[in-house]
């Protein structure tokens, strides 16, 4: 068992109680034993990992280490990383070893963090269960019959199973927060534009943001400090002064106004989720926070708006996979047209094809106004709802998902039901807001349940501070699967 939080791992390295090579080896050994059942990691390369660890040890010996030097981390397969297969869990990119590295990964490599491996995900980040991966489903370490959530299910599973102190995920419609909830860990999606999208395989570019996943909010803050940077290579990267996301960790909850949106506390939630929310409300009250009722009236419209817009963006983003430049190319074809169509028919799985077809349809002449433009207007209305709510509160407390993790196969053949389960995460991405999931209880079947804290633009430090305070007064985040 390698139970370290990121902070503990960093302290062990700094006090020289363990070397980076020893620590990486400890994790690699645990991965050998436990990963085959979970399928959280899909690419491992011990030589590369140990070479990075060796370099970290040299840096520590020379006295120019940073706080994170030598700390191991796992990367979702969506991040391009030089010398590593970067497949986005798709057959289309199964043969793609990236010639360059995503900015967020490079920022962590610059700190001296050590890559443990690449984690499983839904193909091209489209899904909520991790079952659309070309490399097979990831299993939830709390119960191997359950899904870990998605699309960053592999990252959530390896952190929950203590096979990495932390991992990176990406969140287009909830893919950091929902798997964090289903696996009992903490994860944050930052304000759109805070972290660079350069080198992160594009799904829906106006939504996609990377973020940290770890056991604690404190660890997420430490990682976000290292990840966030202005990046001229990403046209939507925001040029802002570097923030210290740990700055509010010790700020008490007294006086903090927490909004409870009435649309999020309805009968659609399982009893276990209601209990987890109530646990959190009780704790917040006991710590002196003030609870206020707010309303997000367009909540239901966020699902159709998201699935129109995300599919539209996906259909254009994925047009680049044509068998010409990189990735899969069909072996059999007559002419060029057939090369394209055979390549795409073979390379993409059915969920990806479904999105491309929906996206192409809503962007086509005659339907553009009815669907795409309408959805853009709804997007604005959803964003406006949040501004009205934030006039009355500092942060919003919400469920992350209506239920605990479903069983494998339960949602896989019912795409509409799967889309509906994203109800509580998607509005945040439509608005571009930051939000965090933290563990808040367990279901009757002993599956973890998380809740969300949503903040206004650039309130990551406030969110992380409130989450850290909750974790100082509770122990849900300390539980690990057997
Ligand atoms: N479940 C959502 C989807 O399939 C969200 C995915 C994500 O955030 N990458 O689009």
Automatic annotation (TrEMBL):
The reaction(s) this protein catalyses: L-glutamyl-tRNA(Gln) + L-glutamine + ATP + H2O = L-glutaminyl-tRNA(Gln) + L-glutamate + ADP + phosphate + H(+)
Keywords: ATP-binding, Ligase, Nucleotide-binding, Protein biosynthesis
EC category: ligase
E.C. numbers: 6.3.5.7
Function: Allows the formation of correctly charged Gln-tRNA(Gln) through the transamidation of misacylated Glu-tRNA(Gln) in organisms which lack glutaminyl-tRNA synthetase. The reaction takes place in the presence of glutamine and ATP through an activated gamma-phospho-Glu-tRNA(Gln).
HAMAP family in alphabetical order: GatA (MF_00120)
Oligomer and partners: Heterotrimer of A, B and C subunits.
NCBIfam families: gatA
Family, similarity comment: Belongs to the amidase family. GatA subfamily.
Name of this chain's protein: Glutamyl-tRNA(Gln) amidotransferase subunit A
């Amino acid at each position: 068992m390698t139970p370290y939080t990121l902070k503990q791992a960093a302290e062990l390295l700094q006090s020289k109680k363990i070397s980076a090579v020893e620590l990486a080896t400890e994790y690699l050994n645990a991965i050998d034993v436990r990963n085959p059942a979970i399928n959280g990691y899909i690419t491992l390369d011990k030589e590369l990992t140990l070479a990075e660890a060796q370099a970290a040890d040299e840096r520590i010996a020379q006295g120019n280490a940073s706080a994170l030097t030598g700390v191991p981390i796992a990367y979702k397969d969506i991040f391009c990383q030089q010398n590593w297969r970067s497949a986005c869990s798709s057959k289309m990119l199964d043969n793609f070893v990236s010639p360059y590295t995503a900015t967020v990964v490079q920022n962590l490599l610059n700190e001296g963090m050590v890559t443990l491996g690449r984690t499983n995900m839904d193909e091209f980040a489209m899904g909520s269960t991790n079952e659309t991966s070309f490399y097979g489903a990831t299993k939830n370490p709390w119960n191997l019959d359950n899904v870990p959530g998605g699309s960053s299910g592999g990252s959530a599973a390896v952190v929950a199973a203590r096979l990495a102190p932390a991992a990176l995920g990406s969140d287009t419609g909830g893919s950091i927060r929902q798997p964090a909830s289903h696996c009992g860990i903490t994860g944050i999606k930052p304000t759109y534009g805070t972290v660079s999208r350069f080198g992160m395989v594009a799904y829906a570019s106006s939504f996609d943001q990377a973020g940290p996943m770890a056991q604690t909010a404190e660890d997420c803050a430490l990682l976000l400090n290292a990840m966030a940077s202005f990046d001229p290579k990403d046209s939507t990267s925001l040029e802002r002064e570097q923030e210290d996301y740990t700055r509010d960790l010790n700020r008490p909850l007294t006086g903090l106004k927490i909004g409870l949106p009435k649309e999020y506390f309805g009968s659609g939630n399982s009893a276990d989720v209601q209990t987890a929310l109530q646990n959190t409300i009780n704790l917040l009250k006991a710590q002196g926070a003030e609870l206020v009722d707010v309303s997000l009236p367009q909540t239901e419209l966020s699902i159709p708006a998201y699935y129109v817009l995300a599919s539209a963006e996906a259909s254009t983003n994925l047009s680049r996979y044509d068998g010409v430049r990189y990735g899969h190319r069909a072996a059999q074809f007559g002419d060029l047209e057939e090369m394209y169509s055979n390549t795409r028919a073979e390379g993409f799985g059915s969920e990806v094809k479904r999105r491309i077809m929906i996206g192409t349809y809503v962007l086509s002449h005659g339907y553009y106004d009815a669907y795409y433009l309408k959805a853009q207007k709804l997007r604005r209305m959803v964003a406006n709802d949040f501004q009205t709510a934030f006039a009355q509160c500092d942060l919003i407390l919400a469920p992350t998902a209506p239920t605990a993790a479903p069983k494998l196969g339960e949602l896989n053949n019912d795409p509409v039901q799967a889309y509906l389960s994203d109800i509580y995460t998607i509005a945040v991405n439509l608005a571009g807001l930051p939000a965090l999931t933290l563990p808040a209880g367990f279901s009757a079947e002993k599956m973890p349940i998380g809740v969300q804290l949503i903040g206004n633009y650039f309130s990551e430090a406030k969110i992380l501070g409130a989450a850290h305070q909750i974790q100082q007064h509770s122990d849900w985040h300390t539980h690990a699967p057997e």
